[in-house]
Amino acid sequence: MNAKADKPDRSVATSLRKALAILEEVADADGPLTGQQIAVQVGLSRSTASRLALDLCELGYLAPLSNGQGFELGTAALRLGLRKFSSIDIRRVAAPFMRTISDDTGLMVDLALAHGDEMLYFEVSRKSGSVVLATELGSRMPIEKTAGGLAAISAFMPLEREQVLARLKMKYGADWPQVEARIQRAMEEIATYGFCTAIGTWRPDVSAVGLPFIDPRTGRTFSFSCSGIGYTIEEDRLRKEIGPRMVELVHNVASAMGTAPRP
């Protein structure tokens, strides 16, 4: 056996990490990014960023704009995302239950996956003609700002929760006690009612309820939430009608997946 051949090539691993960082930045951007923007956001030289971006274009993971002034995700990256979403059974199982509640209430119902300190939204259901919120399929939101994110934190294993809270404490500095109190309140609500509320934590005019869900096969932490603009949903209705409806949704999804929601 050739030990030298078996030794990982650190230069290849480094290049791969940089390329993946570029893909992350382009995927999270609101629009196409120029080579200069990529270089600044990823912390690379302009030449390195451009070289890696062109390599990703050749592989189909990025696509150059027709005017040559920027990059967007290519078809290969989009196919990967679609395949990943379609392979997650909870999305297929939950969608009809989510549509029922959004149709009945006129509110938006979404399903998100906890990813680091963010929630990744990959199923969004809203009644046709209802007021549109900014959450869209594939969007990311800070975990501490949404009902779904607060619910997810409550479901983390102790070590994972401690790590997330430590990062949030560093992020907020002097404002941390206010955020910590919000998280603690959400955990207490979930322990008591099965759902938590978030009123004005993301936007001043948005109210929502959130509930955690642990995939029994993978251990992944998901959340369901139902939200609306202030004038479409009063706090009393949120607690007495919408919260219990969403608790029922979680039980229905768990039953359809042949398991029970984790207490």
Automatic annotation (TrEMBL):
<dbReference type="GO" id="GO:0003677">
    <property type="term" value="F:DNA binding"/>
</dbReference>
<dbReference type="Pfam" id="PF01614">
    <property type="entry name" value="IclR_C"/>
</dbReference>
<dbReference type="InterPro" id="IPR014757">
    <property type="entry name" value="Tscrpt_reg_IclR_C"/>
</dbReference>
<feature type="domain" description="HTH iclR-type">
    <location>
        <begin position="13"/>
        <end position="75"/>
    </location>
</feature>
<keyword id="KW-0804">Transcription</keyword>
<dbReference type="GO" id="GO:0045892">
    <property type="term" value="P:negative regulation of DNA-templated transcription"/>
</dbReference>
<dbReference type="InterPro" id="IPR005471">
    <property type="entry name" value="Tscrpt_reg_IclR_N"/>
</dbReference>
<dbReference type="InterPro" id="IPR036390">
    <property type="entry name" value="WH_DNA-bd_sf"/>
</dbReference>
<dbReference type="Pfam" id="PF09339">
    <property type="entry name" value="HTH_IclR"/>
</dbReference>
<feature type="domain" description="IclR-ED">
    <location>
        <begin position="76"/>
        <end position="259"/>
    </location>
</feature>
<protein>
    <submittedName>
        <fullName>DNA-binding IclR family transcriptional regulator</fullName>
    </submittedName>
</protein>
<dbReference type="GO" id="GO:0003700">
    <property type="term" value="F:DNA-binding transcription factor activity"/>
</dbReference>
<keyword id="KW-0805">Transcription regulation</keyword>
<dbReference type="InterPro" id="IPR050707">
    <property type="entry name" value="HTH_MetabolicPath_Reg"/>
</dbReference>
<dbReference type="InterPro" id="IPR029016">
    <property type="entry name" value="GAF-like_dom_sf"/>
</dbReference>
<keyword id="KW-0238">DNA-binding</keyword>
<dbReference type="InterPro" id="IPR036388">
    <property type="entry name" value="WH-like_DNA-bd_sf"/>
</dbReference>
